[in-house]
Amino acid sequence: MKALKYVVATLILFAAMPLAAQYVPTPAEEPSPDGALNPEILESLRQSVVITPQLKAVQNALAENEINSLVTDHRKTISDDTLFTKEIKTGKITNQTQSGRCWLFGGLNAIRPDVMKKYGIENFELSQAYNQFWDKLERANRSLELAIALKGEPSDSRKNMLLLQKPIEDGGDWNFVKFLVDRYGVVPKSVMPDTQQAGYTGQMNNLLSTVMRKGIKAIREAENPQAVSAAKMATLKDVYKILVLCIGEPPTTFHWRYENKKKDDEGTKAKGKEKEAAKKEESGLAPLRAFTPQEFYRDFMGAPLDNYVSFINYPGKPENALIRFSWNRDSSDGPDMQAVNISTEQMQKMALKSIMDDQVVWFCCNSSVQRNTKTGLWDMGVQDYGSLFGIDFTMSKEDQLKYYDGAPNHCMVLTGVDVQDGNPVKWKVENSWGDKRGRDGWWTITRSWFDANVFEILIDKRYCPPELLKAAEQEPVVMPPWDPFSN
After folding, report:
1. Which of 48, 96, 161, 327 is the right S-S partner for 481, CB 3.0 to 4.6 Å?
2. Choice between 294 and 117, residue whose per-residue pLDDT is larger
3. Strand 377-378 relative to strand 442-446: parallel, antiparallel, unpaired?
4. With 0-12 CB in 10 A as exposed, 13-18 as middle and 19+ as buried, what is 381?
5. Any idea what DSSP says for residue 95?
6. Which residues belong to the active site?
7. What global pTM score does this model have?
């Protein structure tokens, strides 16, 4: 009798509990035999592929080789003469190793040519690890602030799921670079070089993500503002500790000097003692100086980063509109990424002006397609999958974005251009994959590849038409945080 009373009481208790929110699928989503792979369909599929001698050869080749090694178009590869009308001298090729820091490498690489030219430095590299440290910490704070803002939403809401999937990732954009450099400055790489964890971020990111998810959980379960604040600070302290141990603690001050290797100006009219004095002044070791990272940025950088405007090519979105991408930032108080949507032809016209005036150009693209890694060539048709499989794999740029088949995933720097009849036909690219890929780390992209796969570009205002500068000042069209362009 007691057991029966217990069962009844339990049933009453469960009946009184509120039901959890449930997903209600539409009838068409439910399991149905109507759409099953029935014997008739399977037989039709079998008959659709007849193994001819040619397909047998393809099948044998695919059994023993990587697909990409079989689809490289030899004629396309040898047509790249690697000569350019204009090339800008930059430093040695950098290597982001196994990390998603291309946006940071590209951003810092875009800064350094002016520094090298101004001070006569033969090679110069800024510390990516220094800004990476602050990026991770700022990113952790941003995600925790978003968790606080979304505290009232279900944990499985679309926004919360997106936050939990990527609480502290590597990827970024130009606005990340600008924010970090403006706030924290920069330091030479010799002052804070990469550690193993800085370059190979997978394991560190896994640990940081676990700490972040625990912190988000604590925030969601906190019962008052004081508990929320305490949960956030405890999480930030754990993140800071991991970063210090894995990357190193960023310097607040440092000492640095450089070797000036400027050659005499061939056009100088200085003679005798005047020439010798000028030569001594132009070459040799600069005095050892103490800097803060902010002082180093202020004293050594070229054009202020405020002088640059971001442009994107996003087919299907309003032309010449300013588009803002929600959550696409690495801080709680910095701006979201935003850019003016223009054609790739407009992009290339401005990039041409910039390169011809000795200003390199930061850009972002889909680097995963149509490339020959051995020769460092990005060109449409250089990987001919269609001929190998007899299937049309092409999709428009608009459809690639719309259906998640292609999006910007890698940032680099344009350092040269080849011009024919006044138009750019190919571009020289400084990559950050080390000197073992491409032509000792350098790559070429053709005009056709640029049109199909370049999505974003950064241009100094000096090379922007007035109407595009005006477009950059309008109210933005706001995209959701899960937009494929920036997610």
Report:
1. 327
2. 294
3. parallel
4. middle
5. B
6. 102, 410, 431
7. 0.90
